[in-house]
TrEMBL record:
This is FAD-dependent oxidoreductase. Its cofactor is FAD. Belongs to the NADH dehydrogenase family. Gene3D superfamilies: 3.50.50.100. It comes from Streptomyces fuscus. Residues 4-285 form the FAD/NAD(P)-binding domain. Keywords: FAD, Flavoprotein, Oxidoreductase.
């Protein structure tokens, strides 16, 4: 009987993990199934561009995995039973169950309204393609009416900064306000913050600092200090959260629901479950939790692949890098910031700003899309065979390749 590997989620982490496992393991021994709620690969890191009317490709997953042997199940994950090693899925046909021997949990994260009244009902988020497209329709409608309009972006994390500057550049007829709970981009160096403020001034983005949003209404945003902001389109980027599936299944999770994993991305409570991407609470090489990011998806996905391959084929599990090197922020299409961090995750004094970082980030995202859409590139002629009885002892005692 083949070893059944089920990968939940086909975002940056899940698609990479599934495609790479298909490249490494022999189809004679391993059967790989991917479960994803939508039939497309979503470039989440570019959804702020999609919202402003730019073309952002969404390759069909059946095309992505064509020729790999990976099976695709377009369905929503309804639950996991780790004792029976099954996954319950729901789709238009009523759903069902999938059995697994090894599970990779890469369901990612979604926008979090944080309990703010009206945020869910009246604000847009750009954590998913459908919501980004709805925002796009609203922005288009505001431009077409020819009377201008006001956009309020709540949250000054990387997503909020990129969204506000992208909208201001692509839709110059609209007024854009960026609401920051504290100092704008406080985690950046002084020079990077100054560059960001200059970009906001150049693009006409109004920055409101030390403001806490209390209520979101259909056409207004109310702050705790009494400030009222008129808003024809409110964009909520004030945080992200993971779904409840892992916690409901009894896996050990953090307070925010992320799966607690060891250095090999294996669940500390369930040795047949691995996690990658935003769903994983992984400790980086600097001793700090890796942030939710596309870069972390790559690092954790790579380590999960090496661990699974090592365990299933009887090889020593290598320790891959788990780094947090910095932040790469786009400020529209012609400006950006590259901010490196030190071993403690604090911003280094030096940074890069301007067209160079903007072009570099665009190139990295293009490369990520190409690599995801071509999982068979460099396909080895001889794939690794599985051992008859996979040995997890190497992983459990933390044996690491030198």
């Amino acid at each position: 009987m083949k070893h059944r590997i089920v990968v939940l989620g086909a975002g940056y982490a899940g698609a990479f993990t599934a495609g790479t496992l298909a490249r490494r393991l022999s189809p004679k021994d391993a059967e790989i199934t991917v479960v994803n709620a939508v039939p497309d690969f979503v470039q989440r890191m570019r959804l702020h561009q999609l919202a402003t009317g730019q073309e952002v490709k969404a390759p069909k997953l059946v095309d992505v995995f064509a020729g790999t042997g990976v099976r695709l199940r377009v369905a929503r994950v309804a639950g996991i039973d780790p004792e029976r090693r099954t996954v319950a899925v729901a789709d238009a046909d009523g759903g069902g169950e999938l059995g697994y021997d090894t599970l990779v949990y890469a369901l990612g994260s979604h926008g979090a309204e944080q309990g703010v009244p009206g945020a869910a009902a009246h604000a847009f988020d750009i954590a998913a393609r459908p919501s980004a497209l709805r925002l796009r329709e609203r922005l288009d409608a505001l431009v077409e009416r020819g009377e201008g309009g006001s956009v309020v972006v709540v949250g000054d994390g990387l997503t909020g900064i990129e969204t506000a500057t992208e909208i201001a550049e692509a839709r110059p007829g609209l007024t854009v306000t960026l609401v920051a709970r504290g100092e704008l981009a406080a985690r950046l160096s002084a020079g990077a913050r100054a560059h960001l403020r200059g970009a906001c001034d150049r693009l006409g983005v109004t920055v409101l600092e030390y403001a806490e949003v209390e209520t979101v209404e259909a056409h207004r945003v109310l702050c705790a200090d009494g400030t009222v902001l008129a808003s024809d389109a409110t964009v909520w980027t004030a945080g992200f959260a993971v779904g409840p599936v892992a916690a409901a299944a009894g896996l050990e999770v953090t307070e925010d629901g992320r799966i607690v994993v060891d250095r090999h991305m294996c669940s500390v409570s369930h040795p047949n479950v691995y996690a990658a991407g935003d769903s994983a609470h992984a400790i980086g090489d600097n001793g700090l939790p890796l942030p939710m990011s596309c870069a972390s998806a790559g690092y954790t996905g790579r380590q999960a692949v090496e661990a699974i391959v090592g365990v299933l084929t009887g090889r020593t599990v290598p320790q891959t890098k788990l780094e947090y090197v910095g932040n790469h922020i786009s400020l529209g299409r012609r400006d950006g910031i590259l901010q490196l961090v030190d071993g403690e995750g604090q911003a280094k004094p030096k940074f890069m700003g301007g067209r160079g970082p903007a072009r570099l980030k665009a190139a990295i995202l293009a490369m990520s899309l190409w690599a995801t859409a071509h999982p068979t590139f460099g396909l080895p002629k001889r794939k690794l065979r599985l051992t008859s009885t996979p040995d997890r002892s190497a992983q459990q005692v933390g044996r690491i390749a030198a």
